[in-house]
Amino acid sequence: MRILGLDVGSKTVGVALSDEFGWTAQGLETIKIDEEKNEFGFGRLGALIKEYGVESVVIGLPKNMNGTIGPRAEASQRYAAEVERLFSIPTVLWDERLSTMAAERVLLEADVSRKKRKKVIDKMAATMILQGYLDSKK
């Protein structure tokens, strides 16, 4: 049973995939999107769901530090609803506060250059979101 993890932003969607046992998350890719033009990468997402036999999707919910829901979290909720509608697949919204900052810290500690960090940060954040979810299920 494969699970997809998503870190949804306004310009990109970081994508991670679980192994078949649901134990580990691996970064897969970053999908370019454009919120302003209503381009959300659903075509590519659908192809990944089909290719890997994905049974559910975990989407990061970027709550405010005080736990409230702001505009970015509302955008993630809308994205989740659209994924369920388009692909008839269950979604889970996962509290992702600080996941992007944690991913940035890991990449900094690994001495990854700024240019390379920019290319992988969303995919890494998606991996951290998915791994957090998978760990909670053990």
Automatic annotation (TrEMBL):
Record gene name: ruvX
Biological role stated in the UniProt entry: Could be a nuclease involved in processing of the 5'-end of pre-16S rRNA.
GO terms for cellular component: cytosol
Protein name per the record: Putative pre-16S rRNA nuclease
Localization annotation: Cytoplasm
Superkingdom, natural source: Bacteria
Family in the record: Belongs to the YqgF HJR family.
Pfam families (UniProt xref): RuvX (PF03652)
Native organism: Neobacillus notoginsengisoli
Signal peptide bounds: none
InterPro entries attached to this UniProt entry: RNaseH-like_sf (IPR012337), YqgF (IPR005227), YqgF/RNaseH-like_dom (IPR006641), YqgF/RNaseH-like_dom_sf (IPR037027)
BP GO annotations: rRNA 5'-end processing
Every YqgF/RNase H-like domain range: 1-103
Claim: Nuclease is one of the keywords in the record: yes
Keyword check for Nuclease: yes
Catalytic activity, EC: 3.1.-.-
GO molecular function terms listed in the Swiss-Prot or TrEMBL record: hydrolase activity, acting on ester bonds; nuclease activity
Keywords carried by this UniProt record: Cytoplasm, Hydrolase, Nuclease, Ribosome biogenesis
